[in-house]
Amino acid sequence: RPMLSATRPQPQRVFSGTPGGQKPAKMPAVSKGDGMRGLAVFISDIRNCKSKEAEIKRINKELANIRSKFKGDKALDGYSKKKYVCKLLFIFLLGHDIDFGHMEAVNLLSSNKYTEKQIGYLFISVLVNSNSELIRLINNAIKNDLSSRNPTFMCLALHCIANVGSREMAEAFASEIPRILVAGDTMDSVKQSAALCLLRLYKTSPDLVLMGEWTSRVVHLLNDQHMGVVTAAISLITCLSQKNPDEFKTCVSLAVSRLSRIVSSASTDLQDYTYYFVPAPWLSCKLLRLLQCYPPPEDGAVKGRLVECLETILNKAQEPPKSKKVQHSNAKNAILFEAISLIIHYDSEPNLLVRACNQLGQFLQHRETNLRYLALESMCTLASSEFSHEAVKTHIETVINALKTERDVSVRQRAADLLYAMCDRSNAKQIVAEMLSYLETADYSIREEMVLKVAILAEKYAVDYSWYVDTILNLIRIAGDYVSEEVWYRVIQIVINRDDVQGYAAKTVFEALQAPACHENMVKVGGYILGEFGNLIAVVTVLFCHLAPCSSTFSQRPRRLSKRCCAMSWLVHLQQTVHNSDQYYVQTSEVVSPVPQATVLEEMPPFPERESSILAKLKKKKGPGAVSVTELEDGKREGGELNGGGERGPETASTPSPSADLLGIRSVAPVGASLSSAGSLLVDVFSEAGPAAPSAAVNDDGFLRFVCKNNGVLFENQLLQIGIKSEYRQNLGRMYLFYGNKTSVQFASFTTTVSCPGELQSHILCRPQLNVQSKPVEPLVEGGAQIQQVLNIECITDFSEAPLLNIKFRYGGALQNLTLKLPVTINKFFQPTEMASQDFFQRWKQLSQPQQEAQKIFKASHGMDTEVIKAKLLGLGMALLDNVDPNPENYVCAGVIQTKGQQVGCLLRLEPNAQAQMYRLTLRCSKDLVSRRLCELLAQQF
Amino acid sequence: FVWIRFILIQNRAGKTRLAKWYMQFDDDEKQKLIEEVHAVVTVRDAKHTNFVEFRNFKIIYRRYAGLYFCICVDVTDNNLAYLEAIHNFVEVLNEYFHNVCELDLVFNFYKVYTVVDEMFLAGEIRETSQTKVLKQLLMLQSLE
């Protein structure tokens, strides 16, 4: 049955006119003279096998036959070789292992018949083999074909390189292909293949592809007469532009003029490249995408021309369709969506942004599900632009309706995303209410995220606290299982810091707890709030009846909470044993002896408030950048100081010392645990790194060994040993330096100074990047003695240069002078960020400005043991994410660098190539210098 | 980088009719991907979108009779452009095999690879003109 005739009813009606059904069932046509009859018979046999066993039997018979042919004395002719190699390929594609035939396939490469060569190349491409002798032969054959001047053979060879893309091939051909690409006499089809072949090599081995002198000629391929050449070349140019935007920036004006010519052409002008009356849809999309690598053109004329193109595209969307076929509208809309992406990328043309929004608004009610989905998705990004935020908001009713009625869960998910994105103070109550009501029936797969969204919106846009408390309690009531610790923990944090809401909160939870069944999370929140503020409603609690089934989980709560809850369960215990009464409400004073009562009812001190833990969770989920820190702070302001506990009284406002911080409430986060366990692992990993180097002008050998660890010996010579221990939390650090006198003689006039490089040159009004404070040490160090010095470190903003430690002392009569780089590196201020793979890649894409990325390819210098690499990455301070990279060999990490002024989100990807003993390290950070610095530091660690 | 990670043609029963990989995967991983894609795509009905999130990527797919044509791309990539790229490819197959059916793809699997390479290379769209592709394919057909 021809597959194009009976298809999905709508889009494929195009084909219903095609005649079909006349073909023989088993051996279809096409095979004219070129067909391999033996192959067709074999395939038929396999298809006729009644069982798996029969199939395996037939295959083994064939394998034996082929093996004997290959081993036989009689030399096989090209045709037979081709046929057998093709059969082997078919067997492999059925899922069976093939361990021979490679040599015969390689032989086919040097045939001068196209069909034989093609099968040879196909076999090589599908069954890539790392046998070095074979690779040499393959490369040889490719080389011959590339220089054959036969365009068909050249294309076969180029396709093989593009499909295999190995480093060996890059080494052999990376310099040859650019020449083919730009040579004047190269055929168009060969140019197309050469451009994409080069792209593949650049992706696998960017260090080997040196464009240099070719750059300008490659960019000018955008002007090529042949649209196919432009289509292929533009992919290469886009990729190269992302990496070297400056070198390729001339592509902007060329791309604009090409786009302009296409957009303004009539629907039939481009002939072969018109698809369902749409001129060159794919090329237009690629051009618009290339432009998204750059800021808006500076040249007024170019910019004017581009704006004109974008307007034309928007206008065309309003024109009546030239065809009723879905292919027509899809092709047209592919361009439209890409144009809208570019408009959003520029985010500077209010007029275009609003027009885009209106266009998408029309799609929100289109009968095509695809269009509704894409409009919701695209509008989400429009909502974040100040120019179009208001325009997006006008569609709120449609979006709410989509959330309620769409059949496809992924469409509903987009609707929820859009509601979240368009939410502000004016519509927060409506949106939160709609989301809450949707939650009652929401798909399980998206409940947790919905809960988080509601919690964040409620907090961010709360105008009165009672609304906030009600919302969160509703959330727990409706979807208690999906309310994570961060969410209910946060409501407690807020209630504790605002005395004006405490009474209301206590009353509300008290009422909520009287329901016949309460979610465990409700009991937890109730337990805490009534524990604190139950005195405000004069009764302790009805909590007791709910407490027993939940009490086991209380022991896992953070310290303060669990203490409180222990007290509670203890109360319950007392109630059950001592006060054997059916009285429902129990006055504590009746039950408890004076001393424990005091403990129970003593109010906890307010939480030191630093950051909303929900936002931390969302940041974790979404990765750095999704909800930016500024957004969080905006939210605080808008939210009527809902989070404003920080300024409440001296006890919360006091800046804790780093060590106090270590014991703070943030012990909820797994940071401490992961770091310390990594630390102990690292002791072994790094002990092989060799002894410290002797004294030098500025000694930084020791320095590099501490990038991924915090403790160890920084420096050692015959006289002196310096050990360090350090700990970091947020943007603060504390470093303990241990100076050991290895001699039996006293060191005199022992002084140490810490300086930050460049501080003398920097403007006095500039704040330092790093603030390091230390107390002077004792001037005398006895023989064999060790003295200690503590440094307090504060990271003000991101930095590259490490502070220097200068040590001077007299040993015997001689003055010793030593300067060391202190191992304070930017990564010490990392907080690990867990996130799901989808979020990771979304973040990754968002950090796509060329300067946000730093990449290094380097040789492994320490072996490539997985556990060692993992330990080092953990020591780096980022979260090591499992199941994120599709290639399990790769490592990806995420973290946020905490400085005083801001947070810098960082993503890391380390791709080992065990065969080549190489790594490729890529960092993307929301601040460009940070990527570079981290990349430099890390490239020396593996 | 944004590029096609793989192209799959599968039938409803999950038999693979073409698998073209543009990213390094080992054989086990490929098998897993094939099974996952089949599981994700076949449960969707005609009213659903032609796009489905898949691991860190998305699948743009379209069903023709009993065959699913699937392209796996980056989440930020242009859905409709790939959806029509699939259709463009199918129309070429239809012309080339004179009303293509599933069996054509089985018996001529080695030719399907040639068609793919003409239209997609290194995970990018290489040529979109049906006329140009078919002319080239006919020329190759005439060679021995």
UniProtKB/TrEMBL annotation, chain A:
<keyword id="KW-0472">Membrane</keyword>
<feature type="region of interest" description="Disordered">
    <location>
        <begin position="626"/>
        <end position="660"/>
    </location>
</feature>
<dbReference type="InterPro" id="IPR008152">
    <property type="entry name" value="Clathrin_a/b/g-adaptin_app_Ig"/>
</dbReference>
<keyword id="KW-0813">Transport</keyword>
<protein>
    <recommendedName>
        <fullName>AP-2 complex subunit alpha</fullName>
    </recommendedName>
</protein>
<comment type="subunit">
    <text>Adaptor protein complex 2 (AP-2) is a heterotetramer composed of two large adaptins (alpha-type subunit AP2A1 or AP2A2 and beta-type subunit AP2B1), a medium adaptin (mu-type subunit AP2M1) and a small adaptin (sigma-type subunit AP2S1).</text>
</comment>
<comment type="similarity">
    <text>Belongs to the adaptor complexes large subunit family.</text>
</comment>
<dbReference type="InterPro" id="IPR050840">
    <property type="entry name" value="Adaptor_Complx_Large_Subunit"/>
</dbReference>
<dbReference type="Pfam" id="PF01602">
    <property type="entry name" value="Adaptin_N"/>
</dbReference>
<feature type="region of interest" description="Disordered">
    <location>
        <begin position="1"/>
        <end position="31"/>
    </location>
</feature>
<dbReference type="InterPro" id="IPR013041">
    <property type="entry name" value="Clathrin_app_Ig-like_sf"/>
</dbReference>
<dbReference type="InterPro" id="IPR003164">
    <property type="entry name" value="Clathrin_a-adaptin_app_sub_C"/>
</dbReference>
<dbReference type="InterPro" id="IPR016024">
    <property type="entry name" value="ARM-type_fold"/>
</dbReference>
<feature type="binding site">
    <location>
        <begin position="37"/>
        <end position="38"/>
    </location>
    <ligand>
        <name>a 1,2-diacyl-sn-glycero-3-phospho-(1D-myo-inositol-3,4,5-trisphosphate)</name>
    </ligand>
</feature>
<dbReference type="InterPro" id="IPR017104">
    <property type="entry name" value="AP2_complex_asu"/>
</dbReference>
<keyword id="KW-0653">Protein transport</keyword>
<dbReference type="Pfam" id="PF02296">
    <property type="entry name" value="Alpha_adaptin_C"/>
</dbReference>
<feature type="domain" description="Clathrin adaptor alpha/beta/gamma-adaptin appendage Ig-like subdomain">
    <location>
        <begin position="704"/>
        <end position="823"/>
    </location>
</feature>
<keyword id="KW-0254">Endocytosis</keyword>
<feature type="binding site">
    <location>
        <position position="69"/>
    </location>
    <ligand>
        <name>a 1,2-diacyl-sn-glycero-3-phospho-(1D-myo-inositol-3,4,5-trisphosphate)</name>
    </ligand>
</feature>
<keyword id="KW-0168">Coated pit</keyword>
<dbReference type="InterPro" id="IPR002553">
    <property type="entry name" value="Clathrin/coatomer_adapt-like_N"/>
</dbReference>
UniProtKB/TrEMBL annotation, chain B:
<protein>
    <recommendedName>
        <fullName>AP complex subunit sigma</fullName>
    </recommendedName>
</protein>
<comment type="similarity">
    <text>Belongs to the adaptor complexes small subunit family.</text>
</comment>
<dbReference type="Pfam" id="PF01217">
    <property type="entry name" value="Clat_adaptor_s"/>
</dbReference>
<comment type="subunit">
    <text>Adaptor protein complex 2 (AP-2) is a heterotetramer composed of two large adaptins (alpha-type subunit AP2A1 or AP2A2 and beta-type subunit AP2B1), a medium adaptin (mu-type subunit AP2M1) and a small adaptin (sigma-type subunit AP2S1). Interacts with CCDC32; the interaction is direct and mediates association of CCDC32 with adaptor protein complex 2 (AP-2).</text>
</comment>
<dbReference type="InterPro" id="IPR016635">
    <property type="entry name" value="AP_complex_ssu"/>
</dbReference>
<dbReference type="GO" id="GO:0072583">
    <property type="term" value="P:clathrin-dependent endocytosis"/>
</dbReference>
<dbReference type="InterPro" id="IPR000804">
    <property type="entry name" value="Clathrin_sm-chain_CS"/>
</dbReference>
<dbReference type="GO" id="GO:0035615">
    <property type="term" value="F:clathrin adaptor activity"/>
</dbReference>
<keyword id="KW-0813">Transport</keyword>
<keyword id="KW-0168">Coated pit</keyword>
<keyword id="KW-0472">Membrane</keyword>
<dbReference type="GO" id="GO:0006886">
    <property type="term" value="P:intracellular protein transport"/>
</dbReference>
<keyword id="KW-0653">Protein transport</keyword>
<feature type="domain" description="AP complex mu/sigma subunit">
    <location>
        <begin position="4"/>
        <end position="143"/>
    </location>
</feature>
<dbReference type="InterPro" id="IPR011012">
    <property type="entry name" value="Longin-like_dom_sf"/>
</dbReference>
<keyword id="KW-1003">Cell membrane</keyword>
<dbReference type="GO" id="GO:0030122">
    <property type="term" value="C:AP-2 adaptor complex"/>
</dbReference>
<dbReference type="InterPro" id="IPR022775">
    <property type="entry name" value="AP_mu_sigma_su"/>
</dbReference>
<keyword id="KW-0254">Endocytosis</keyword>
<dbReference type="InterPro" id="IPR027156">
    <property type="entry name" value="APS2"/>
</dbReference>
